[in-house]
């Protein structure tokens, strides 16, 4: 792990083994942050974290007790079934909601005291424009009910957490990474993962309490809820 410096700090990222989470972890490491890169397998620097498992999230909190963390990024997510209403089934739908909407709340609860002990105090939920009621279906008619509903729920989680954490001085953001070339986004996606990660990092590093409860895209654009 990289030593903290006055200009950097400690960032914890979920789902950091590949995709956008991995790119963010690499970027923060390159700029001198201590990175707690959480994966399902675990690493030398972070215990295993399965965000579908509330016990695993609580264990992460116990493991990190009293460790100051400046920035927490709830990034881990799954897409789920994209077949539309006809193929929607209960367990699959609930698994997507559990991972994409409930887990970030449990992570926020488990790591609140760590954020309070940090200097930056920023909690990020990686959301999606697909979960925007105002914009999500404008140019996109795919059938992924579970993903869209989970990301819409995550947006409300951001707004509620922003309200809850205001007195702690913890800023809570929903950030849309764009349509990114990862396993989830696919090869046809419009944005390179490094470009998305760089844009997100800029927004995160510049975040103050003035931005708490907001929904922005990687390029700085405000996304309508
Ligand atoms: N790519 C896009 O176009 C796009 C667009 C809008 C929003 N987003 C959001 O951006 C974030 C990153 O997505 P991505 O494109 O990088 O997706 P990805 O390539 O599919 O990576 C997903 C990450 O989440 C982790 N994950 C999934 N379930 C987990 C669990 N139960 N416990 C712990 N980790 C778990 C995966 O770990 P494993 O390797 O262990 O599976 C992986 O590291 C997500 O929140 C996604 O919804 C992406």
- From N to C, what is the helix and strand string? EHEHEHEHEHE
Number of strands: 6
CATH architecture: 3-Layer(aba) Sandwich
Low-pLDDT parts are 1-6
Structural class of the helices, strands and pairings?
alpha/beta
**Widest β-sheet, arrangement of strands:** 2-1-3-4-5-6
**CATH homologous superfamily heading:** NAD(P)-binding Rossmann-like Domain
**How many separate domains?**
1
Q: What is the third-level CATH name, the topology?
A: Rossmann fold
Number of H- or I-type helical stretches: 5
Biggest β-sheet, characterized? Answer: 6 strands, parallel
| Bulk shape | globular
Bound molecules: NADP nicotinamide-adenine-dinucleotide phosphate
Beta content = 5-15%
Arithmetic mean of pLDDT: 95
Kindly state the percentage of residues in helix. Answer: 25-40%
Radius of gyration: 16 Å
Which CATH class is shown? Alpha Beta
Calculate the terminal CA-CA distance, rounded to whole Å: 37 Å
Structure, explained:
The protein has 225 residues and is α/β, with parallel strands linked by helices. The protein has a 6-stranded parallel sheet with strand order 2-1-3-4-5-6, with helices on both faces. The protein has helices at residues 19-30, 54-63, 90-117, 145-165, 193-205, and strands spanning 10-13, 34-37, 71-74, 122-126, 171-176, 214-217. The chain has a single domain (10-217), classed as Rossmann fold, CATH 3.40.50.720. Helices cover 37% and strands 12% of the residues. Helix 1 packs across helix 5 (193-205) and helix 3 runs parallel beside helix 4. Bound molecules: NADP nicotinamide-adenine-dinucleotide phosphate. NADP nicotinamide-adenine-dinucleotide phosphate is lined by residues 14-15, 17-21, 40, 49-52, 75-78, 99, 126, 128, 176-177, 179-180, 182-185, 189.
């Amino acid at each position: 792990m990289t030593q903290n410096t006055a200009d950097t700090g400690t960032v914890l990222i979920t789902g950091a083994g590949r995709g956008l989470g991995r790119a963010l972890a690499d970027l923060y490491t390159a700029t001198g942050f201590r990175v707690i890169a959480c994966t399902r397998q675990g690493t030398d620097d972070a215990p295993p974290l399965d965000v579908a498992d509330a016990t695993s999230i609580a264990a992460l909190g116990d493991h990190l007790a009293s460790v100051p963390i400046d920035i927490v990024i709830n990034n881990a997510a799954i897409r789920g079934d994209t077949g539309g209403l006809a193929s929607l089934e209960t367990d699959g739908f609930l698994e997507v909601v559990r991972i994409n909407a409930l887990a970030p709340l449990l992570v926020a609860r488990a790591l609140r005291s760590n954020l309070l002990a940090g200097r930056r105090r920023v909690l990020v939920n990686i959301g999606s424009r697909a979960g925007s009621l105002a914009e999500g279906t404008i140019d996109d008619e795919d059938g992924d009910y579970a993903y869209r509903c989970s990301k819409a729920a995550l947006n409300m989680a951001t707004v509620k957490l922003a309200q809850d954490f205001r007195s702690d001085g913890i800023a809570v953001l929903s950030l849309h990474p764009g349509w990114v070339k990862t396993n989830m986004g696919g090869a046809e996606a419009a944005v390179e993962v490094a470009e998305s990660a760089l844009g997100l990092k800029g927004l995160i590093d510049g975040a103050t309490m003035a931005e708490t409860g907001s929904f922005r895209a990687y390029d700085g654009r405000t996304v309508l809820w």
